[in-house]
Amino acid sequence: TAWTVTPMFRLKPVTAWVSFYDYDPEFFTRHGKGVAFGIFAPPENLTANQKGIVLGTEYNTTRFRSRINYYVATFPAAVGTDPDGTASLQARDARGIYFENEYAATRQLKLYFRVREDRHDKLDEAPGDSVNKVVDTEVQNFRYQATWNPRREVRYRVRYESKYADSLTYGTRDFAYYLMGEVSYRPTNTLKLSARYYYY
Description:
This protein is mostly beta strands. The chain is 0% helix and 64% strand. The protein is built from no helices and eleven strands. Strands 1, 2, 3, 4, 5, 6, 7, 8, 9, 10 and 11 form an eleven-stranded antiparallel beta sheet that branches.
């Protein structure tokens, strides 16, 4: 079984919502779980069963938009990675926050900033280690972006994104980043040409 309930309240320019959800381990859908706790690591690091709550609010005006989501989840029937399911792990918790801002500085220029932070337990399967360890992991992701539309049919975009993955158990940090540049041109209403360059 699986269920979600999301009451939403709207009083312009503010919208707020609260989502409650509960998914059994056997629940599966090719279209995702809808409201759920998402992570930056491979999906197998967390079990399929979740129950939790999402608190969110959005402030939206003509030139400014801001959104915050806060996630709290538990995984009450944590299952290990052995095919027979005997290597069960302890039940665990997770929490995260998602925050984004978009600001129209001018009619042609838009500035965007996003930060996402997840904290959850992760299964550590180090080579040569016969004992699986559950380690406390925190992942932070930052995105900075500027979009310039000098004309309706032309768009330029530049983006910088960074990611920090901290193992709170071992006291280590991994870091990654990428740069993206884009040029888009729409010669007609039905045709759009776009070129992007990524540097990791």
